[in-house]
Amino acid sequence: MNKKDYRKKLSKLQAELVAVQEWVRSSGRRIVIVFEGRDAAGKGGTIKAITERVSPRVFRVVALPAPNDREKTQMYYQRYIKELPAAGEVVVFDRSWYNRAGVEAVMGFCTESDTERFLKSVPNLERQMIEDGIILLKYWLEVSSEEQEKRFKSRIKRAEKQWKLSGMDLEARRRWYDYSRARDRMLEASDTDLSPWYIVSADDKQAAHLNCITHLLEQIPYEPLATAIVTLPEPDQTNAYPDKKSLRGRRYVPEGF
Q1: Which of 114, 209, 228, 252 has its CA 20 to 30 Å from the CA of residue 27?
Q2: What residues of the chain score a pLDDT lower than 70?
Q3: Which residue intervals of 108-241 are DSSP H helices?
Q4: CA-based nearest residue to 76, from 43, 125, 130, 129
Q5: How far apart are CA 53 and CA 15, in angstroms?
Q6: pLDDT per residue as tens digits for the range 24-40
Q7: Cα 193 to the center of its chain, rounded Å
Q8: What is the DSSP secondary structure assignment for residue 227, as one 8-state letter?
Q9: Is 203 within 8 Å of 143 (Cβ atoms)?
């Protein structure tokens, strides 16, 4: 697919996401969208495609850093629960409570009993969220080993992308099969009929964006609202004055383009 066709298809889907936004805002519904996957699977790009044209006041992206010392003493779910949406909000998690079954388990940041306890409790947590009226969608972006290698090498070669590559990423690459086993264990424990996981084939970034957004729209029972008729008013001339002249002598950014 060429870039022009991709942008055309994406633009159409993004217009529907705006319709979802207005439906969520007017109905007071709450939506949670969870994105998980290996490093370089394209979570950030997919989230950007979803949120590019909607209001950040409705679609809120949550990408929590590693827990601080205080958070480490709290109930594990606590810092995620406080990010859940209020009425009229969509919260998109760029990684989520599933860190405990992924990076924390693989890298040894938690104990085996911590992971086991999490996997036993998470279906109940999600059941409570759904029974409380939250629409919960969970996406796992699946990238091949060959494609991950290609994307990591691209980050190494391009200076503007090197910030994306951390020591953790390099170690995650070495532990590819440990992550595969952690993924399988997570899916086995938490892919339920009530709260299923949806796998997105992500080797082709553009196709992944379009497929994921199309599926997402199919899962939300939104009803497009009528488009408001807006009339642009003329400026009130009562207090008119030569405002352009009033900026003379001010510091302007040089117009080099």
Answers
A1: 209
A2: none
A3: 112-131, 145-157, 167-174, 176-190, 205-219
A4: 125
A5: 8
A6: 999 999 999 999 999 99
A7: 22
A8: P
A9: yes
Query: The tokens of 50 are what?
Result: 């979803």
Helix, coil or strand: residue 243: coil
Tally of residues, the chain: 257
pTM: 0.91
Question: In angstroms, rounded to a whole number, what is the distance separating the alpha carbons of residues 72 and 225?
Answer: 44
Task: Look up residue 73 and give its amino acid.
Answer: T
Token pair of 80, please? 């995620």
Residue 98: name the closest of 224, 189, 163, 20 by CA.
Answer: 189
| Residue 20 φ then ψ, to 5° | -60, -45
Question: How many Å apart are CA 82 and CA 80, to the nearest integer?
Answer: 5
What residues contact 138, with CB distance under 8 A and at least 6 apart?
34, 36, 190, 195, 196, 197, 198
